[in-house]
Amino acid sequence: MESTSTPERILRGIALTLVILFFMFPIFWIFMMSFQTNETILQIPPSLSFTPTLSNYMALITGKLTTAAGTLDIAFMGNLGNSVFLSTASVAVSLLLGVPAAYAFARHKFRGSEDIAFTLLSFRFAPPLLVLLPLTQYFQWLGLSDTYIGLIWVYQLICLPLILWIVRGYFEDISADVEYAYRIAGHSWFATFRKIALPLAGPGIAAAGLLAFIFAWNNFVFALVLASASKQPVTVGALAFVTSSGIQYGQIAAAIVLSIAPTLALALYAQRYLVEGLSLGAVKG
Amino acid sequence: MTTLQLQNITKRYKSQAVLDDLTLDVADGETLVLFGPSGAGKTVLLRLIAGVIEPDAGKIVIGGEDMTEVDAEHRGIGMAFQNFALFPHMNAFDNIASPLEANRSSAAGIREGVEKVAKLLKIDHVLSHRPKALSNGQKQRTALARALAGSPPVLLLDDPLRNVDAKLRFEMRLELPRLLAKQGATVIYVTQDYKEAMALGDRIAVMSQGRIRQIGTPEDIYNTPADIDIARLFGDPTINLLTVIPKKDASGVYVELSNVRVPLPSMPESVVGKECVLGLRPETIVFTEPSAQGAIPVTVEAETPLNEKTVTLLLTARGREILLSRPAGTPGPSSGPAAIAVNGAAAFLFDKESGARIATPATTTNRNGEAA
């Protein structure tokens, strides 16, 4: 380690504090909002002293939203379930397809392999809205609109390129000699893939899976257009809080807290892998 | 019985030929050393034999069977890599066990096999360690043990001593021949260290630029190098090379060094008047009395004792540097003017243009590919 002077350390501390404040404040504020009623939230100037209430969470969990205009049914818990199911299933499918593909791209330079890999990446260049119009049409023809399968399929546009490119970098980082050594020892290529390549790329695969999960979880526009209420994830479901009698900030805040909780927990848990995986993908991409 | 034949192997990367129409026979149980500078194609050749890369042309025959199209796992080969290529997520035991597992041996059989080879290589106490926790020497031995564990009939060792320290290299150089003999396998051993090549090889194949330049026993290569490069690669200190133009008089062919006549009794007359390079092994040059017949005056520049020998750097009257090597402890000047005698019969003459050694009638055999 290089030695750092005292002023340098103080400056660094200040800079870090500022960055943390900048990024953490919205989360903190939303967390506070989720325990307040609409009246206290909208009060000017905003105040940190309030009587915490669990009514927002109660409304979400029971599915009954009480507004000035009466009681509304909301499917928030159903949406949360949809989010978990859609994201998990999408990432699972992406891993199943993407990891072997990434291995193929990393290890076997066949004619057009770079072009195919790039085409897959280019799915992420297209603005989703541009893709959505024709996609809606196709899905109606195919009977895929408003189905989980259809949504999971579309989510591959988000997850597959991500997993493919990050995991590919990881596979390329494994010394080919290590794999050769296992082949020469008498094992088939598939055994080599399973026993050598997969375990060694494990952290990268985990990081890529986690990232893909977060991206899938945060997706809004695909589900908005292609799914009806019963299949919608939380990102779309949150629209229900914009009611005829006003915007239910308290419930929105509570809904946000509940919906970021799983990804936040996952990200915190796998933070190390995530950073490692991202930087590696960047270097080897 | 496992012989190994490579027939007209060619391998290109882009348009660059890494191996160029290479043919090589290795006899059953023989240890053949592939020797050559980096980029000569030695490692590529090993990989072709192992089956992890494919040749563009040519045939690989192992034990009489054409293996060119056979997958690596079915070739019955053990290979130790220069960078060890241990499986980082497995401990030493599992590393060594990998070829035995592929044979579908029983668990007890695997344990027995691993422990036997580990004991032989003195790593039985570190079998539970991951590669990260092993020293370089232990890694090297683990890699070697893994190559040996399956008792493969063909062993490919890619410069296994390259990345270990000098002391261990010296020990292993003594140990390896015994180990390889015990294994009874046909061995191809790649190295860039001529001493290793001389110590281990039944025969040495000298490679450069994708071709085999000379193949023969260590003595052949040392005593009758095919060209200047090979003469320079073998021998420590390096051979003295002096540009000369041979002359001829009534008593035969000779060259002049510092105006002193050095007869070359075995050289053909065709070399007369041609620009040549005279090769003098440092150990064939001796100090002599300045008044003696054929004595060449020199100045002693520096003296370096090297354990069993002493190397002296000399300067001729024309300022050319000459190395002289003599057994340690023998008398000789360590500074000032001196005189040397050169044995013309033990000298090599190389064509300056092509670099090829000019054959003397006594030593015309053992050129490219001919049996030793």
TrEMBL record, chain A:
Extract the Gene3D superfamilies matched here. MetI-like
**Membrane-spanning parts:** 12-32, 84-105, 117-136, 148-167, 204-229, 249-270
**How the protein sits in the membrane?**
Multi-pass membrane protein
Answer yes or no on keyword Transport.
yes
Q: Does the keyword Transmembrane apply?
A: yes
Key words, A-Z: Cell membrane, Membrane, Transmembrane, Transmembrane helix, Transport
Its localization reads: Cell membrane
InterPro entries the UniProt entry points to: BP-dep_ABC_trans_perm (IPR050901), MetI-like (IPR000515), MetI-like_sf (IPR035906)
Per the record, the coiled-coil ranges are none
Chief subcellular site?
Answer: membrane
Q: Report the residue ranges that make up the ABC transmembrane type-1 domain in this protein.
A: 80-270
One GO CC annotation: plasma membrane
- GO terms under biological process: transmembrane transport
Q: Which family does it belong to?
A: Belongs to the binding-protein-dependent transport system permease family.
Q: Which PANTHER family match?
A: INNER MEMBRANE ABC TRANSPORTER PERMEASE PROTEIN YCJP, MALTOSE TRANSPORT SYSTEM PERMEASE-RELATED
Q: What is this protein called?
A: Carbohydrate ABC transporter permease
Provide the organism lineage as a comma list.
Bacteria, Pseudomonadati, Pseudomonadota, Alphaproteobacteria, Hyphomicrobiales
From TrEMBL, chain B:
This protein's GO cellular component annotations are: ATP-binding cassette (ABC) transporter complex, substrate-binding subunit-containing
Q: Does the keyword Nucleotide-binding apply?
A: yes
Q: Where in the cell is it found?
A: Cell inner membrane
Question: Transcription: present as a keyword of the record?
Answer: no
Report the membrane topology from the UniProt record: Peripheral membrane protein
Keywords attached to this Swiss-Prot or TrEMBL record, sorted alphabetically, are: ATP-binding, Cell membrane, Membrane, Nucleotide-binding, Translocase, Transport
Q: What is its main location?
A: membrane
Report the record's Gene Ontology biological process terms.
carbohydrate transport
Query: What Pfam families has UniProt attached to this entry?
Result: ABC_tran
**Any GO MF annotation of the entry:** ABC-type transporter activity
The ABC transporter domain extends over 4-234
Protein family per UniProt? Belongs to the ABC transporter superfamily.
Q: What is this protein called?
A: ABC transporter ATP-binding protein
Species name for this entry? Metarhizobium album
